[in-house]
Structure prediction request, 671 residues.
Amino acid sequence: MQGVLDKSILLSVQELTVNFRAEAIVARALEGVSYEVRQGETVCLVGESGCGKTVSALAILGLIPQPPGEIPGGRILFMGQNILELSEEELQNLRGNHIAMVFQEPMTSLNPVFTVGEQIGEAITAHQKVEGDELRERCIRLLKDVGIPSPAERLKDYPHQLSGGQRQRVMIAMALACSPQLVIADEPTTALDVTIQKQILDLFKTLKSKKGMSLLYITHDLNVVANIADRVYVMYAGIITEQGKKRDIFQNPCHPYTRGLIASLPARSKRGEALHSIPGTVPDPAYKPRGCPFHPRCTYAVKKCSEEFPEMLDCGDGHLSRCPVVLSSERKTNTIRTHEGPHYSDL
Amino acid sequence: MTTNNIMLRSTGLKKYFPVRRGFLQRVVGWIKAVDGVDFDIEQAKTLGLVGESGCGKSTVGRLILKLLEPDEGKIIYKSKDITHLSQNELTPFRKEMQIIFQDPFGSLNPRMTAGQSVEEGLRAVGMKGRRERKERVRELLQMVGIPASAADRFPHEFSGGQRQRIGIARALSVEPSLIVCDEPVSALDVSIQAQIINLLKELQARLGLGYLFISHDLNVVGYMSDMVAVMYLGHIMEYAPTDELFDHPLHPYTFALLSAVPAANGTPLKQGLELRGEVPSAFNPPPGCKFQARCPLAEDRCRRTEIPFYEINQNHLVRCWKVV
Ligand SMILES: Nc1ncnc2c1ncn2[C@@H]1O[C@H](COP(=O)(O)OP(=O)(O)O)[C@@H](O)[C@H]1O
Ligand SMILES: Nc1ncnc2c1ncn2[C@@H]1O[C@H](COP(=O)(O)OP(=O)(O)O)[C@@H](O)[C@H]1O
Ligand code: SF4
Ligand SMILES: [Mg+2]
Ligand SMILES: [Mg+2]
Prediction:
């Protein structure tokens, strides 16, 4: 593995495999997933539901329930330490102090019977000795940082008194409480209106540049990826199918699944023509097809695709794709297709 | 507005919900969910209704289907005023207008097979022969891309996209001419969303259906619609043909929405207008423009007087005096 000694790499997930077992049935949620997050970088994991995005985030925090979960293989190196070998106590120190997480639905992660002030205060004091006025000041500053108006008054509010967007801001404030190096955000704007989503995405960008933290941003929404990512990992059925800089992924996608996803996006500019659609559905992780798990839905598939599990192939400059068919047919002549149209050209 | 081919026209439609408080459950105010709404839906065309959550989109849908009684205004269906028809008088119109929802799971009976759900509609339109019904169920399922062999399966045995297809087949069973699509693809993954969108378009072309297409997603609305109505707190703020609305938005709210929508090239559909704050409650709104609290252009007049719907040209209306 290249890069283990690279200081700029904050998080390195290597060949991570996660199964969920129910009696004799084994759901292979992740199969050899590898990805990296460098200092100060925003990395997006994108894919449709059930492809393993949340499981890969929970694994980083040591939050996979075992059983039914099991982690038969892989390493998760955070600042050089393998998270999978840490004790529960060490994990607790890691969560909050170094890595924090923001979830999709803040209502379920905020405690309804404690005030905003109590919960942010608790996030701070869990790891640091601060009290009294100083604690209150810290709470107010955090709320201000995440753009909550009249923060001093909001301290007394209960979660249900806030709007969805404000609750998500409170969650972000709690995540920032101990200045973590890495924030993991799992679909943090999926339940919000577009205008509020825009505000939250802008907030993440500002906080990231101000605090120099790294962001692992999980979403199913390619439009959000295009807005926020530096680098992108596309997931399908528990594997990484393509990875690269945002530009590579949108302008020069080399995996049929990525191409299909981009072509499926509705947009006013496509009105009047049928949308491209990927036939079929995402497979159940307990019954994945042999070979390339995407082959039953793939318009490029050849016989080999149903027989051999494809390797990650180099498309140059950190851009990798797990599809030998596209690469051998289009690379030979150096003609990897670029997506046409103004829609993708000005990234 | 054009008058030919109008299937459904709504004029001045209003629906207020009472807010009750205290021991005696006194009415302390009103949620002005729909506060005077005008639009037309043309034959075989789609009117997109877009706006943030809580702005009244679903209520409009339920009003035109007469699932809710409007407080004021008129619903004209194929030149007939159906606003005050009795349940009995409505029966023929019920078959003409159908609805499909965001969550087909919630709207399909879990104890009925896919076939039974679709067949129920056929019984409702009085198709008597059992053989004939079964044949029609096969046809309908096939039309929406569900293999006839799956007719005996229950909703939980299908994926989200397939359940949406069954919901569509059920709506089609009574041969409607207008369908209210209330966020029909919002809960689906992109690849499945594209399948359902294509299906809706195909069916529209084949059967000449009119759609009221409700969505909070401007990318989807822009793809689906011929006309777009942008809604905010019970009012339509702007109403225009799709391209006109996207290329020449006039209302500051439309502009702000377009600025907030990320597109697949990373740049928003429009740039320049940032929306601060969140949608205020529809409970006892202040007089004047509904958008005043968030509007960067707001002036005194916006807070004093009701803002009329200005007709910019034949097909483009906007509810803002500053931009006309
Ligand atoms: N606690 C669990 N028990 C059993 N299966 C699980 C559990 N958590 C996740 N899975 C399975 O793992 C797969 C990946 O899930 P997830 O990571 O949540 O997908 P995503 O976040 O991409 O939608 C799914 O098939 C899901 O059903
Ligand atoms: N049956 C009802 N009783 C009281 N208030 C309602 C009812 N239905 C909707 N509302 C309110 O009316 C407003 C508009 O709701 P809705 O039409 O569902 O908006 P949208 O579909 O745009 O999200 C909201 O404030 C909502 O809370
Ligand atoms: S009428 Fe006034 S408040 Fe309303 S949109 Fe126009 S400028 Fe803004
Ligand atoms: Mg998830
Ligand atoms: Mg609604």
